[in-house]
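ESCALATION

Customer reports they have been waiting on this structure for their group meeting. Please prioritize. Original submission:
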Amino acid sequence: MIILGIESSCDETAAAIYADRKNLSNIIASQAVHEQFGGVVPELASRAHHKTISKTVAQALEEASVSVDDLDGIAVSQGPGLMGSLLVGLSFAKGLALSRKIPIIGVNHIDAHMYANFIEHDEVYPFVALIVSGGHTRLVYVEEAFQHEVLGKTRDDAAGEAFDKIGKILDLPYPAGPVVDKLSQKGDPKFHQFPRAMINKGLDFSFSGLKTSALYYTQELESSFLKKHLHDICASVSDAITDVLTVKLKQAVKLKNVNHVMLAGGVSANSMLRIKVESMARELGLNLMIPAMQYCTDNAAMIAITGAMKARQHLYDDLDLKPFARIE
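Update from on-call: job pushed to the front of the queue and completed.
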């Protein structure tokens, strides 16, 4: 089975080919236009997708040595995401599916982050997944493929959003999350004690208080002090966020008594989070799955493999498939 995956939920135009349990290509066209604004501008994002989607898909097909006529299915990110961006990818996928009579498969972007782990890891169930991205932080129990129970989710800012916004407070370049991570690797995580909201209260998350705390803390600092201890402040912020994530993941694992656990989403690339979760997995004797760096952030390979898994269960969609901006 040969599946084309298309991803356009935010500011990455991506296409990939997945066949015979292998990822044959994974092309990502990034959008540099947003850097000057310090964040994604939805209208500019959708225009950039429109310009690049055709050649991105063509490049994915060429790299995989696959033609459109070889495709058994087209998987496309249906949401959550920016509506304008999603519409570009969905419209392109529908047009291609209709013209060549190829089945179409709508894919939940958040689910795809989880199933990206199965590109390189064996498909095992049940598991608990910690999905951490710019827009979502949630704990999910998965008994079987596409049988999900949300155990906890963010009540306000997601972890990735907290990283990016605090990085912006620190005047770091966009996207700030990876920069905070890089700087934190040379800092002292115990330099300042930032709040760890709700760390021992249920499985939901809240990072808005941490963002506010970082704002007030840095406002009181002299610029020279801030510059001197930037690494330490970044490390302290990272320590607070990853402490909450790891503690709640451990609680969820014990609650569901699973042997398999996974990280997913863009923030799963964070070095401190990986170290802490790896330590937790060793302590509890768990099988830990973490995607390779290229599959952490938004990509089409995760859409393609999820589409292949849905096709295996004959979970196809009609051409009236609609995008959605949010999930509960």
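Sent to customer with the following note: The chain is about 40% helix and 20% strand.
Escalation resolved.
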